[in-house]
Amino acid sequence: MTTEAAGTRDRRHPYRAVWVLVILLILLALFAIVAQRLGVTWPWSADYDTPRVTNIEVGFTGPLYANERGVWINTQGSSEGVNSTVELSRIDPRTNEVHLGPTVGAGTVVATENDDLWAIIFHPRGPDRLQRFDGDTLRPKSKQVRIDSFIIHPKVLHGSVWAMSEGDILRVDNETARVTRIKVPGFALRSRFFAAAVFASGEDSVWVSLVGESGRIVRVDPQTNRVVDYKLQTGPCPTDLAVGYDAVWVLDRCWNALLRIDPDSGHLEVRAAAGGDPQSLVLAGGFVWITNGQPGTVTRIHASTGERAGPRIDVDGVPQYITAGAGAVWVAPQGDTLVSRIDFESGD
User: Fold this and answer.
1) Which of 93, 118, 187, 251 is 20 to 30 A from residue 142's alpha carbon, by CA?
2) What ranges make up the beta strands (E) of 104-144?
3) How far is CA 36 from CA 60, 258, 282, 288, in A?
């Protein structure tokens, strides 16, 4: 090939190198997006602290709640069919010592905003009952309140115990034990009895994720006990939700994703990959913490950016329950013997 011919060929493709560079940049951007969705952490990414994990022996584990005064957890007392019992135990966050409390019968425990405890005592033939305990002594502070139905997924918000009961939202006042039923517009009758929900609260609303209702989110005004919005949609399989950092956060198992909802506009966005087999979430220290059943880890997502903060955190067993308080995140598997305490630095 002559020198003149080579020069002519080069003039025909003067931007070949530029186009190659553009294509490489596009491929690199696509790879980065896919890697972010998969939760890949790069060696050169933000330098987050590595949380310290401490395992605490408590016996048979169940739902737990934490604040600055302690961590309360259900531990199995005995297992005798319908006569099984549950003991309330408290972990001292200063020493990690476990203090055994009273036996309350088959049930679960949730904590009130003034640090007292409500035990939801299940009965195999119904109805269920509520009983209040002192948060320091774990001694009963009230008689059992009879509820004329089964109770599912209780939580304490805005001075009341909130739960699902035969398809309605049930509210029980902490002080007066007054029971209020709140109807959900358009709720399918065929799913009412077996309906389950997850509750969370903001400053002026209680948010309810109706499990099994194609990802519906219901917003309740706690001042009027009325449903003010029932048309918000999330992913198909919401498993947990929380309110904070100017958003409603929803964990979706089918999409394997952390979803963010703007509480004012209702706009939904996929914030981040949730890791394998997401179970539950909690907000703490500027992060969204997610338990992963497989492979037994906790994923930490920065709430402001949606980026994963450091590598996944290994914990004991298959984590199902998670809560935050006393400067730590506390994780418990269902039916195991250890609670994992994760100490961290704030990401705010």
Assistant:
1) 93
2) 107-111, 117-121, 129-133
3) 37, 13, 21, 16
